[in-house]
Amino acid sequence: MTSTLFTNISELVTNSPEIGDESKMGRLYDAALVVEDGVVAWVGPASAAPDCDEISDCHAHAVVPGFVDSHTHLVFAGSRADEFAARMAGERYDGGGIARTVADTRAASDEELHDTSQQRWWQLRTSGVTTVEVKSGYDLTATGEARLLRVASEFTTETTFLGAHSVPREFAHDRDAYVAYVAGEMLSAVLPYAHWADVFCDRGAFSVDEARHILTAAREAGLDIRLHGNQLADSGGVALAAEMGAASVDHCTHVADHDLEALAASGTVATLLPTAELFTRSPFPDARRFLDAGVTVALATDCNPGTSYVTNAPLVLQLAVTMMNFTVDEALWAFTAGGAAALRRSDIGGLAVGQRAHLSVVNGSRSADLAYRASTRPLFAVFRETTGIVL
Ligand code: NIG
Ligand code: FE
Q: End-to-end distance of the chain based on CA atoms, in angstroms?
């Protein structure tokens, strides 16, 4: 087994309160970290580091856990640039454009979907993401949704069935039949490739009762559940997620105080998606309301062709801090440990001994540089398992 010493780290964030300054960030200065077999084997002051087979000099840069992007729709074909332009000219986002991406995605070859998804995943990785969740939802047939999840499962185990993303045209006059199809034949077809089930529970999308029906069937079939909720209106999606004990409810643009109390009590993570708010000109939720209520918060890119065509992870952090009232530490925690919590994972999202050595070397001496400097080269290197990308 080869051991690698990452040393000359000016600031190391581990997200482990037992390490370093005993804050939630588990921060150490002038630090080193040993990796064996892709796992963190030792963390401590550089002056006390053990001998290792290889040395990786971090050149007095900061090191942080890799971002855990717990909400994306990476597998799709086509573009909606003209829809975006129309929105910026005053049109409102209502989810109607999903049909356009569905048509483009159904027409795309396996090879095209594979190649474009891999490109987006590469872009996310070079921006510091080391784990990605990927949803289906742009085919809306049983075989097609299974195809999208098969493509996604080539690069992540965090695959999510989102057949309830929109009612496709062929079911426009019988939505009950579509809900039954999603909870029946489509669910059975995706089971080999899906880990999670999700529903777009919102105004103009799926109702609370429809979402409850689909998520109950998914859970009975062995999938764990998460939800899109309250992006477009106070739709009841957040309350449903708490009621059902979902791992996460995502967007949370419109939430009432009782929703926050319910989330805190259930332990359901609230995943906030700042770039979706930015590119739809929606109000940014105030992170203080969530954090002060005791809710666990995650951040994610929501990479998708409609509301957030974003593969630039630091932008999420920058908006969280500048527009949503996160402190820099809170935002960094939310995009690492928070994302891991949203995926019910304890092996990622931090750099304590035993966790996976998924880490980014910041192009600066402080972790805060990630939010402070909007540079074209925010990172010096990204390591995932045993392989690294030097940028
Ligand atoms: O997370 N809200 C639903 N789904 C996506 C957008 C889908 C689309 O417009 O293509 C989202 O914002
Ligand atoms: Fe989404």
A: 26
